[in-house]
Amino acid sequence: MVNLLVKYRLLEEFIREHWPNGAADDGRARLLRYETLLRRHSASDSILTRASQALVAHNLCETRILTIEPPQAGQRNSEIVAFVRGMAIFNTRRVSKFTQEELLGRYLPSAIRFIGAFDKSGNYALTTRVSQDEAAQAIVDALTHDERLADLTRSHVSVVLVSELVLMTLANQANRKTAGFTRDTLVSHFCEHH
Amino acid sequence: MTALYGDRFDPRSFEVRIATARWRAGITFLPEPLAVRPFVWPALGEPKVEVLASSGRIAKFLKREEQEGEERISFGDPTSAVDAALATHLGRTISSTSRSGRTIRGVLRQFDET
User: Which of B112, B113, B114 should one mutate to test binding to chain A, selecting the residue with the greatest count of A CBs within 10 A?
Assistant: First the structure.
C-alpha cells in the first residue's frame, strides 16, 4: 500500500493528513523497515526504495500539497481500472481472457493504452489521456466487436482512477478512527501485508 | 478490515473468520457517489452479505463463503444486495458491480508488471 501511495504521489498527503508520526524519526525508520522488507521480496529497484530515500533525504513529508484531478483530454496519462459487469455471470458473455485482451489491444483508441487484464471476468488495467466516461465508452466500443459481447452498454462499465480508488479506500479506513481505531494500526497493516 | 476484525482478517486471502463462518472482503463499485449505511443481506435468515458503511463510489462488503450443502454465494450477491437497497432508497434502478479484494489487487498489480 505504501508502494501505491508513493507511486501516485500520495504518501506525503497521507502522512500529513492521517499519519503524522510518519514524518517523525520513528515513522521514517518504519518506512525504511518497509523498504527493507520489500527489497527482500523484490529484486528490482522499487518505487518505494527511491521514494523513501527521497523522503528521508529531503524531508518532504510536511511540505507537499497534492491533489487528485481527473484526466483531461491532452493531459498526461492517468492509470485507471475498469470493471465490466456481467462478464462472468452470463454464459453468452463468457469470452476468454485472451480474446478480451485482443479486442482491447486492437480497438482501443491511441489515447487509451491497455495494460493488462486479470482473470476473465472483465477486470482491466489501462492508462488514458481521456476522461473516465470516454474511456468507458471506448472499452464498450472495443469489446462489442465480438458478437458475444454485442449487448454490452456504457452502463456495464465502471471506470475508477487508481489514485481515486486508493484515496477512497483510505478515506473509509481513516473514518474508522472515530470508532476507536488508530491510523497507525491501519498504516502498519497495509504496509506489512499488501 | 484489520481494524474491525483484528487477527481474524487475513490480508493475503482477504478472508475473515467470524465464529465458524468464513467471509471474503470485496468492493462494490457504484455508478455514482452515494453514502451507504451498513446492513446485512438477506434481512431474514442467515446473512450472506454484510455491507459496511461506505461513501463515494465504492462500498466495502463481506461475502460469506457457502457452507457444505449450501447454494453457492457468489460475488454477484453483494451486487444484488447493494442494488436492491439503493433502488429502494432512491426509487430508481442502480447497476453496480462487485469484485473481491483478491481481484482488485490482481488488476492493480498489472501496472507493476508492465
Answer: B112
